[in-house]
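Ticket #4471: structure output looks truncated?

Reporter: J.K.
Steps to reproduce: submitted the chain below (269 residues) through the standard prediction queue, then opened the result file.
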Amino acid sequence: MDSPQPDASPIDGHLDDEIPWAMQFAIRYDKKRPASHVDTCEAVARAAVALISSPEALEGEWRQAVDFWRDGRIRKLVRRARGQTRWAEVQTVPGVTVEQGGGAPDGEPGDEGVAGARAFVPAPVRPLGPVLKKLQVEGTELPDLHPSRTEGAVVTVGVSPHITMTTGKAAAQCAHAAQLAWEAMDEPTRQAWQADYFRLRVEVVDAERWASNPGRVQVVDAGFTELDGPTETTRAWWGGPQSSDSTRQETTRSEPVCSTVIPAASGAR
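Returned output as attached by the reporter:
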């Protein structure tokens, strides 16, 4: 199953080619030590922004592909790399990897695993290269182990309380919101966010706050998968009182969080 309909944001741009483009992701999927749902959503969102803001995307070999994709509908598609072999294989495809959360690397089965997400350079959704073609898409679900443990982040992504999404779907929507936030914010805020490795906080917003606070950017999913027609899925806040409202709701848990952005790897798509 190498070409399901990707998610789409409400951005208008050039008309699609006959074969649409998407930014694809692979998430680490370990059945014995699964990562948490929220850490995975945060890692995918961070990887998306890390890729589009990278030197390769802004002025290097990825620029043409990234610009073409950003000028259209910013589709995103989240796949799962099952086990260490698949996770190692996806590192050979050009892109950016983010890892965060989890417990000790040598923890026991059943312990929380480290979340990992690799964002790949945007490209047509088919044909896929041999590495990505092996990775499944539908039904990607990880356990909801805890709220976000990210504190003091520049950006907060709020998820609608009125819908239910799988981890794969939610991660794509959080990545949309993070990308729109990066594109909308001023340069000093971008630089501060980049210096913090694009850490962000993902939280499901309560219904009262969702109704009263529209956020600074909003994502309306086209409704091709999981959702029934156009549906607002996520919003993002940064700076000012809207962001500080989110900060006051952060948890006080103090488990260590690993936040590593791995440089782009070389290799054929």
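Triage note (M.O.): checked the attachment and the full token line is present. Confidence is low (pLDDT under 50) at residues 1-14, 241-269.
Status: closed, working as intended.
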